Amino acid sequence: MSYEIALVGNPNSGKSTLFNALTNSCEYIGNWPGITVEKKIGKIRDSDNSLIDLPGIYSLGVLNRDDCYSEEELVARRYLLEDPPDMILNIIDGTCIERSLYLTLQLMELGIPMIVVVNMVDEVEAMGGHIDSAALGSRLGVVCIPISARYGTNLDILLVELDSHRNLSSNTLEYDPIMQNAIDSLYWLIAEFVPKDHPINLYMSLMLSGETHILNELDLPQEVKEESLQIIADFNSNSQNLDGRAFVIISRYKLIDKLTKDIIKKQLPPIFQLDKLLTHRYLAIPIFIFAMLGIFALTFGYVPTLISSYLERFFTIALPNYSHDILMNLGATNWFARLITQGVISNVGLVVAFTPQMVMLFTLMSILEDSGYMARIAFITDRLLKEIGLSGKAIVPMLMGFGCTTPAVMATRTLEGEQNRRIAILITPFMSCSAKIPIYLLFIEIFFKSHRTLVLFSLYILGIFISIIYGALLHKFVIKGDSPPLMLELVPYRMPKMRDVIRHTWHKLEGFIMKAGTIILAMGVLMWLMQNLTPAFEQVNNGASSILGQIGMALSPLLVPIGLGDWRISGALLSGLAAKEAIVGGLTASFGGGLTMALGSALSPVSAYSFMVFTLLYPPCISAIVVMARELKRKRWLVFSIGIHLAIAYMAALIIYQLGSIFFLG
Description:
Strand content: 5-15%
Radius of gyration: 29 Å
Oligomer: single chain
Strand order of the largest sheet: 2-3-1-4-5-7
Largest sheet: 6 strands, mixed
Number of helices: 32
Helix content: 55-70%
Structural class: mainly alpha
Shape: elongated
CATH architecture of the domain at 4-164: 3-Layer(aba) Sandwich
CATH topology of the domain at 4-164: Rossmann fold
């Protein structure tokens, strides 16, 4: 018989790592809160049991103001209450066990068989600490196993326990006398009216926390409902000048202190002294800026640049010429040979040529993420983001936007509050996603060789600056409301494992390679055909009379004020709506052979920078737009977003080109 087991735990508890280890899956592993947004399912190895990876959550109840759930809490809570699993595997972060046990107490109230695993015991021991997991399990009344998901410690023991599916019922929890008396009173009042398969213990603690709507959802006689409300009101009046929610939270932590007394020994390692510097009020942001500058400098290091230059020559000169000769010898027409060599090989090859720099960038960013530093970035940016109605937790999807806008928009589900999520969705596309890197690298190599690092860094900073200004205006005039409080533990610093870094880098690079073999190739062929066919589908020698030329010339007057009046530039920008990497292919198709020389003569450094800024800020690719439409839920917000992106991109490029022309060309 197979069982359904739910994997539940806090963000950053190692949940994704354990899921991968138990199912031999290759899900992405991160080191900041909220990486797991949607439910994932896998078969536990050597078993028919299913493991369901629920979103990382801190609580099943409402902890935020205005009775506002985060999307991750909603997903987990609805599943556990409406379609409960056969067993819960609760993972606890051993480095911050008190924080993790808050959720454990709520899960115990569900009455579902549960196994608790204390993860990261290797890190606790490395800090000179110790956790007596057996004693903790005895006090909780469940099986409690110490593990290290990263290194596979005790996973064989865990697999045996998961397969046995024993009746692991927990002991009765005893809270603070005031809270316990209220719970007992509610129990004797409503127990007979609550179906046996409903988690009455959780219902009662949630009702005392202010979720009185549960009473309306239960089929209770009116007098029972009124007596229940009176018990809750009395509890609030006896809660030592605290509201019921705050008193329940305090009572839970009092119980946690009792449960963990004498079984946990902790000692902070010297490396935590780094936090005094990395989270310093005035030095934290400059340190982060210098860290990013260092990453960009290494991205343009000697080795990646040298390899990239060889790949570019091979894919844009040697291979196309060799392929053209072979095709002609095989009897192909010159037109077809040019389609294959220019529309396919040169197009895709030019994008692939920048892979070495992208590998370097992705690797360095993965190391930064896995080290624990990104949690500090969320902490230090909290004060700044509060000014635009967000919490520091919003930095997570914003930073993910440097990789790809589509999953970054999906990651906003981890944020609390509708207005909070909406602002984050609208500003995230201004982050410079990795799809734009080939465009930057191409233009930087042609126009800004001696200032590579600063030019690339300026584009990233500009995207962040624009997003903050835009978010502040949205918060002030359009989407008003207070920012939610930041609830985030600073995870321990960790030495990134090379295996995980390679996996993360490949995960990011894989999407780029897939696009190169599909969207970029298709757009390159389409753009080449549009550049070589008239509207009547006849071959042309003069590109200006082609389909692409006609479209480009229709758009070019609008782009003259930003220095992009060349019809070939206008046409190439259209391909970016499918995928930003496709712009390079669009330029290759528009300008034909010798792209580097052709661009160098068609644009000045100022107009080249204007082009990069425009591609940075104008609407994201079609996949991101589709996800935005789904997450924003209202079409008017999507239309508003696309219009604003076009307006901001045009205005920014206009200011840069006009001022640049005055100061550098005038």
